[in-house]
Q: What sequence folds into this?
């Protein structure tokens, strides 16, 4: 759009001239320019300069033919040199007249609104000019089509001066259609130049129409108009020697639309909705930038073809010098110098072609194409259309590639490749990888070259469903096929074996993989090279005892087209003692690999051949510990480090997962394939130490109850032993009462761990004693030794309690982080009150013969019972001995409060007789007495 | 003339792609099919914009390129069909009819007990059927 002259890009502004009184011009100009709509001024200091704007008498147009459609400078002339109104300014002393009218003049001057009067007058002028030409048009007296177009254009411009957009649009369209009809009929100019002129004029008219439509907010109409413009001119390629001009022109049409859309998009975006005929993409500039780039590429290829065909490319430059744009839009002429003046001489088509070629050589199309694609890419990215954006990136990268900017190209190709990998578009990925491989070859990056080559060789392209593509469009890599994969495979393995070098552009040295420059590739869980080498490791057991052997299956899978022979496999674990190496038995020379340390385990496998899509399975026994990294070594200078994967959690191979083929498993045992893990849990060894808790009888409330603990080391020595003691309420709820407000007050404490006795030095051994928790250290015990102590626990309330004791020790050393072995013991201990008395009334219907044993001391036994009046009630008094000592019950008194009501006092006397009746032995059992209350 | 048809799976991966051109533009057609997935995504994610195509398998014209028109179709199992044609004046009914026949061919192909869902379609019968459907495109709308 910047190529268009300023007067075409902006709407015309009315022009007025000021003559005389130059000191006022600045004020007036500023004022008029700030009017709405603004007015431009042409200031002439005095009347002597008036001839500047005088009209040169025009010769009537050539009766037969006009020389062009319209003149290049006509629009500029009317915007800057031909005023619509001339205002002459005089100072009052220059004015003389009838003094009677003087007052009237002053009043008129006061009422004069300068802006309005100028606007009115210039409007009138432009309207009259427009009308004048319109009349000519309507009279149909115009001799040529050119004039008719010119008149339409002029009417439209005058309408624009008046801001009459509707009329302007109508006449621009008229001019455009008339011009289109000219294509077949005009013979004024030689064929090539004729078409160039028509297209140039059409471009200007089209641009005007497009701008007017877009500024009027008619986006749908503008785009429809554009399509129509595109359709009517797209086919007019013209002569083959200048067809590049056509593509350049077409590209510019798209670019201009894209730029106009970008300018207006801020205001229109919200209102545009896809219509039936236009999709949403046709409203986005991205689409048009992309097409502009496309046609510019077309232009470049045509231009290069034309250039290569023109025999005398060198003399193109010489002849073209004096050719310049002529006075008519879209025409070119030779400038002839005649003394001080220049004259224009028409040129032949041959001359014009030479001129166009010389002009074309001045431009670097590739950078223009990249810039267009970049705009398109950014716009698509804003739309979150990542695939379209990627396609633009791809085209950009190809452009960079073609101008030998391999670094830029590689960056872009890399980002596209990841999208195609993700979505499994193998043919597209192949093409991109082909470019990447070529870029890294030229840049001399061996590692990248090997990686891209390996990935290409392992792509699923031999499978049915992928068409063979022609080599023309495939870029540096030949079309994807199995044979091509095999060639790449062979090439890359020759390179990594050091048999061949990589010819790169860097100082013309071929890069080799040698002992000095070994090559190391890493394949992790997300690497695209998983298709090249997939390593899976499965322990046959999920939990093993330390020192006990378990089996480990290593499985490898490769999708490379040829069999790969591995020299050596190094398996590394997170516990390096377990590391071992597998060497290929068929390669005796490589068995003496230097980096094998003494004591390192080396296994020899009969063959380490990796065939295409066939698991190589190796099973070895291994003692203890978890796996970490698995390292695979191949070739003297080429290593691949592969992260081991668990078969159970292994992802499908990217790309290959979409292929229709038989599933294979990394291990022979399918169960292991589904559940196998690359890590195993190593248990702690079995304890060989006895822990005994000796308990005699129940504990009694109030006494300090001692529990002896004995540790006897039978098979292990005890290093840094530790006893943990825990008291837990068997019914849950803790050992403190629920209303525990002060946690350490003994009032609320039911059971308490008081301490430990029987220790040699209490200060050293007891590390912590709390109410329900204790920690005691155990001294070193040799095998066969034993050690004991007593726990002292006090019950405050009768309660059963669980006692947990655990011994932790390390069997071998006393280092703090040495492996620990734990022994656990637990015991339930009942806490009881020594002697308990309780009483209960017997309900009336359960008298006499009823069995005593059925009667339990109810929780409400202390409560006041209501007894039937005038009947005998039975009171049961129970005494219970929980101790181990027999107790003799000597006597028992039952008293009744004297304050009570009379009826109960009667009972009192009756009861007294019982006092001496019963005295017997309470031998850790309960005795029951029944009392009857006589009336 | 139809120049390319494609079946695209759930991860936007090609399950079947076949071009029917003599010219060297098969790879370009792959690019076009891949780009059209952006439009399918947009239509599926913003059903409001597409208006009448809501709840319909036929997605209509996805996007125009200079020389091609791309149409889309989304099956009830969210598998996408893409059609690229060089005819710039195509009747909607023809395209719908094409997709209907293509869909039934697809259903037959994936109903094969030996076909694993989500894998590429390698059936030769399917390929033949598709090429017949492509050949008869636009000849009659009753098909």
A:
């Amino acid at each position: 759009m910047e190529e268009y002259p300023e007067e075409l890009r902006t709407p015309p502004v009315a022009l007025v001239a000021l003559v005389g009184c130059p000191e006022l011009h600045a004020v007036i100009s500023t004022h008029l320019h700030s009017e709405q709509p603004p007015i431009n001024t042409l200031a002439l200091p005095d009347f002597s300069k008036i001839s500047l704007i005088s009209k040169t008498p025009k010769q009537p147009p050539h009766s037969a033919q006009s020389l062009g459609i319209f003149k290049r400078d006509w629009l500029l002339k009317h915007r800057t040199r031909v005023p619509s109104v001339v205002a002459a300014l005089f100072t009052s002393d220059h004015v003389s007249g009838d003094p009677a009218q003087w007052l009237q003049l002053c009043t008129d001057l006061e009422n004069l609104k300068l802006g309005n009067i100028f606007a009115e007058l210039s409007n009138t002028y432009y309207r009259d000019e427009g009308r004048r030409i319109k009349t000519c048009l309507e009279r149909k007296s115009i001799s040529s089509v050119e004039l008719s177009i010119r008149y339409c254009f002029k009417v439209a411009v005058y309408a624009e001066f008046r801001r009459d957009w509707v009329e302007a649009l109508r006449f621009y369209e008229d001019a455009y259609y008339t011009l289109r009809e000219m294509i077949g009929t005009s013979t004024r100019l030689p064929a090539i130049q004729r078409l160039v002129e028509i297209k140039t004029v059409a471009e200007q008219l089209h641009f005007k129409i497009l701008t007017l439509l877009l500024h009027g907010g008619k986006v749908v109409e503008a785009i429809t108009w554009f399509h129509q413009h595109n359709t009517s001119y797209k086919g007019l390629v013209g002569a083959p020697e200048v067809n590049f001009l056509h593509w350049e022109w077409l590209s510019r049409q798209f670019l201009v639309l894209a730029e106009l859309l970008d300018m207006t998009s801020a205001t229109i975006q919200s209102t545009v909705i896809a219509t039936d005929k236009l999709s949403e993409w046709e409203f986005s500039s991205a689409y048009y930038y992309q097409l502009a780039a496309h046609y510019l590429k077309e232009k470049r290829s045509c231009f290069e073809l034309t250039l290569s065909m023109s025999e005398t490319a060198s003399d193109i430059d010489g002849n073209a010098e004096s050719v310049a744009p002529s006075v008519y839009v879209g025409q070119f002429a030779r400038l002839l110098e005649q003394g001080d003046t220049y004259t224009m001489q028409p040129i032949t088509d041959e001359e014009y072609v030479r001129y166009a070629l010389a002009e074309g050589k001045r431009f670097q199309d590739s950078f223009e194409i990249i810039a267009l694609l970049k705009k398109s890419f950014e716009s698509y990215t804003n739309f979150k259309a990542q695939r379209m954006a990627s396609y633009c990136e791809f085209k950009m990268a190809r452009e960079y590639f073609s101008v030998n900017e391999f670094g830029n190209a590689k960056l872009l190709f890399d980002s596209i490749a990841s999208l195609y990998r993700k979505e499994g578009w193998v043919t597209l990925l192949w093409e991109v990888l082909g470019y990447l491989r070529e870029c890294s070859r030229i840049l001399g990056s061996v590692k990248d070259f090997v990686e891209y080559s390996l990935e290409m060789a392992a792509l699923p392209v031999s499978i049915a469903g992928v068409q063979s593509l022609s080599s023309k469009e495939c870029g540096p890599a030949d079309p994807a096929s199995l044979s091509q994969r095999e060639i790449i495979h062979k090439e890359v393995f020759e390179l990594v074996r050091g048999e061949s070098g990589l010819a790169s552009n860097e100082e013309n040295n071929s890069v080799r993989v040698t002992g000095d420059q070994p090559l190391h590739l890493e394949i992790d869980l997300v690497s695209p090279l998983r298709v090249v080498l997939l390593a899976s490791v499965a322990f046959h057991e999920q939990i093993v005892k330390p020192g006990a052997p378990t089996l480990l299956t290593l499985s490898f899978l490769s999708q490379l087209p040829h069999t790969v022979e591995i020299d050596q496999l190094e398996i590394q674990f997170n516990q390096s003692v377990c590391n071992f190496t597998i060497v290929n038995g068929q390669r005796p020379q490589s068995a003496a690999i230097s980096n094998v340390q003494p004591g390192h385990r080396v296994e020899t496998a009969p063959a380490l051949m990796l065939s295409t899509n066939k698991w190589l399975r190796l099973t070895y026994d291994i003692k203890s510990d978890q796996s970490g990294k698995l390292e695979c070594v191949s070739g003297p200078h080429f290593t691949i480090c592969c992260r081991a994967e668990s078969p159970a959690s292994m992802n499908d191979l990217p790309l290959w997962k979409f292929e229709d083929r038989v599933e294979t498993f990394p291990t022979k045992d399918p169960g292991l394939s589904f559940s196998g893990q690359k890590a195993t849990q190593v248990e702690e060894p079995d304890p060989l130490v006895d822990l005994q808790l000796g308990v005699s009888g129940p504990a009694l409330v109030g006494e300090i109850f001692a529990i002896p603990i004995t540790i006897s080391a039978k098979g292990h020595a005890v290093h840094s032993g530790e006893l943990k003691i825990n008291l837990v309420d068997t019914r849950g709820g803790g050992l403190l009462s629920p209303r525990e407000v002060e946690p350490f007050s003994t009032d609320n404490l039911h059971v308490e761990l008081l301490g430990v006795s029987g220790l040699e030095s209490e200060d050293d051994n007891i590390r912590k004693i709390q109410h329900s928790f204790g920690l005691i250290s155990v001294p070193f015990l040799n095998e066969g030794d034993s050690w004991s102590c007593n726990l002292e626990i006090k019950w405050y309330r009768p309660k059963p309690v669980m006692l947990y004791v655990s011994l932790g020790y390390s069997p071998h050393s006393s280092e703090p982080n040495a492996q620990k072995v734990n022994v656990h013991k637990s015991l339930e201990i009942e806490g009881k009150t020594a002697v308990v008395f309780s009483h209960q009334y017997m309900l009336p219907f359960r008298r006499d013969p009823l069995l005593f044993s059925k009667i339990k001391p109810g929780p409400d036994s202390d409560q006041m019972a209501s007894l039937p009046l005038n009947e005998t009630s039975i009171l049961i008094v129970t005494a219970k001995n929980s101790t181990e000592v027999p107790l003799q019950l000597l006597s028992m008194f039952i008293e009744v409060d004297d304050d009570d009501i009379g009826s109960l006092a009667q009972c009192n006397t009756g009861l007294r007789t019982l006092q001496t009746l019963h005295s017997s032995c309470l031998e850790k059992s309960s005795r029951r007495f029944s009392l009857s209350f006589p009336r | 003339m139809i120049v390319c048809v494609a079946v695209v799976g759930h991860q936007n991966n090609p399950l079947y792609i076949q071009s029917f051109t003599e010219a060297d533009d098969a790879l370009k057609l792959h690019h076009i099919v891949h780009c059209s997935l952006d439009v399918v995504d947009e239509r599926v994610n913003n059903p409001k914009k597409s208006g009448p195509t809501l709840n319909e398998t036929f997605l209509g014209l996805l996007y125009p390129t200079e020389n091609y028109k791309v149409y889309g179709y989304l099956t009830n199992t969210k598998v996408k069909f893409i059609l690229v044609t060089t005819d710039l004046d195509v009747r909607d009914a023809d395209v719908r009819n094409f997709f209907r026949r293509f869909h039934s061919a697809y259903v037959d192909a994936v109903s094969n007990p030996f076909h694993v869902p989500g894998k590429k379609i390698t059936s030769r019968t399917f390929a033949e059927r598709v090429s017949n459907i492509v050949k008869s495109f636009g000849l009659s709308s009753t098909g």
About this structure: Residues 114-139 of chain A form the longest helix (26 residues). The radius of gyration of chain A is 54 Å. The CA atoms of residues 57 and 823 of chain A lie 123 Å apart.
